[in-house]
Amino acid sequence: MRYFVSYARRDNDIERLCEIRALLGGLDCAYVDDLEVHDPSVDRTHAVINALARAENFIAVYSENYLMTEWTRWEFESALHMGIEMAALLPNNRFAKSSDPQWPWPRRALHARDGAAREVGGA
Predict the structure, then answer these.
(1) Strands (DSSP E) along the chain, which ranges?
(2) In DSSP terms, which residues pair with 116 in a beta bridge?
(3) Alpha helix (H) residue ranges in 12-98
(4) Contact 34, 6 (CB under 8 A)
(5) For residue range 28-68, what is the model confidence (pLDDT) as tens digits?
(6) What's the alpha-carbon Rg for the chain, to the nearest Å?
(7) What pTM was computed for the model?
(8) From residue 112, how far is each of 97, 105, 117 by CA, in Å?
């Protein structure tokens, strides 16, 4: 299973990111941008886009600043648009799926995605 971990840098230091990666199963299972070794000849933006495109699950690390940065909002909205299974990693290291009552963000974006999928599918 491939995870893409999305997080606000100002709320998650390297130690926390290592803890999250270990929680998800280690190096081969989770893309955590600040823990990746990036080829200097490859644009980092493309590396992030490619990792997101390969992800089976999107993990949004809940924090005060999560949706306050352009990058985290873009990652979150892209995962919604791509239909990637989403979960929030809460501060207590529990996961909340978008259908869970503990889901920390407004559901209207999720419902908009579902409606768009129905329109495309003709249902």
Answers:
(1) 3-6, 30-32, 57-61, 85-89, 95-97
(2) none
(3) 14-23, 44-54, 70-82
(4) no
(5) 789 999 999 888 888 888 889 999 999 999 999 999 999 99
(6) 15
(7) 0.83
(8) 17, 14, 9
Question: CA-CA distance, 15 to 34, in Å (whole number)?
Answer: 11
* Amino acid identity, position 99: S
Supply the DSSP symbol for 40. T
Q: What six digits make up the tokens of 56? A: 């089976």
Nearest to 77 by CA among 116, 47, 44, 35: 116
Structure-token pair, residue 95 = 């996961």
Tokens of 33: 């941008």
**d(C-alpha 91, C-alpha 80), whole Å:** 22
Q: What is the mean pLDDT of the chain?
A: 86
Instruction: Pick the closest to residue 12 from 64, 75, 77, 78 (CA basis).
Output: 64
- Phi and psi for 82 in degrees, rounded to 5? -80, -10
DSSP state at residue 35: G
Task: Look at residue 25 and give its three-state secondary structure.
Answer: coil
CA–CA distance, 76 with 32 (Å, rounded to integer): 14
Instruction: Give the integer Cα–Cα distance in Å for 62 and 87.
Output: 10
Q: What's the count of helices (H) and strands (E) in the chain, helices before strands?
A: 4, 5
